[in-house]
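anyone seen this seq b4? input:
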Amino acid sequence: MKPSRAVTVLVVLASVAGALAAARPASSPQTRKLKVHISVDMEGVAGTVTADQLGPTGFEYGRFREFMTREALAAVDAARAGGATEILVADAHGNGENLLVEQFPPDVRLIRSMPATMPSLRAWPSTASMSPKGRGTRRSRGSSTCRSS
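predicted toks r here
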């Protein structure tokens, strides 16, 4: 991992952990669920500099899907370390079909396809929302949630 990538990942993980620590009382055991919504967009992935990395026709797209997935999984690990009891990860890049879903743990809920404003998020009224990645363009299409198993 290049130094700039490592620094970016550490900053994202520190942000997630800090937000979770602030959301959880320090003096009493956790008595309520802590739900975390992580939104990931490929333009925010460390090392992304050209359009060749951002779309299916680009020669580096597959490689950057892997990077995007690894960074999302690092944020999931940080959320768990911060006490998250439920985790929702939204693929917020392009058509919303970029994360490598088979790499996610079965208990993590995934949002794929667009638009990302969906009825499934209404079930999460007290979600601590983390959007450490950039925001890209969105296409209006159907959306779905799925378990990652």
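The chain has one domain: 3-23+33-147. The domain at 3-23+33-147 is CATH 3.40.50.10780 (Rossmann fold). kinda curious what u guys think
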